[in-house]
Design goal:
Layout lengths: L1 E8 L8 E5 L2 E9 L2 E3 L4 E10 L10 E7 L8 E4 L1 E3 L2 E8 L4 E9 L5 E9 L1
Parallel strand pairs: 1-11
Antiparallel strand pairs: 2-3, 3-4, 3-5, 5-9, 6-7, 6-10, 8-9, 10-11
């Protein structure tokens, strides 16, 4: 059951958490080096995703998948699995060249509903 899609165009927001909302849920995406938020860069990036429910609480039990691609090359989509640690869903993604990237996040909630959000960045 697909019940919501949202998008955030954050091409010029670097070194900050990128946020977007879908159906009252907030998704926050950040690129990290340890506990520090850094700018996305060419190569391997540590990514952290926080999902907050409609009452303002973090969701620790969603099934989260991340896919990423360059808009100019939509056939080449990479995917990454996440691990929940330190109140966030964490993974590594390889942004293997400079340019624009779309990062799509899908999360299945405990009630079975699926939400999708999209972030656009430029490196």
């Amino acid at each position: 059951l697909l019940s919501g899609i949202a998008a955030a165009d954050n091409d010029h927001v670097l070194g900050k958490e990128l946020t977007t909302k879908v159906d009252g849920y907030t998704a926050g995406l950040s690129f990290r080096h340890g506990k520090h938020i850094i700018m996305p860069h060419e190569g391997e990036n540590n990514v952290s995703l926080v999902i907050i429910d409609t009452s303002g609480k973090k969701i620790p039990d969603a099934k989260v998948s991340i896919s990423y691609s360059m808009p100019d090359m939509p056939k080449f989509v990479s995917k990454a699995d996440t691990t929940y640690l330190d109140d966030a869903y964490n993974t590594k993604i390889d942004l293997n060249m400079k340019g624009s990237w779309d990062i799509e996040v899908s999360f299945r909630l405990s009630d079975g509903k699926i939400k999708k959000v999209k972030f656009s960045i430029k490196i």
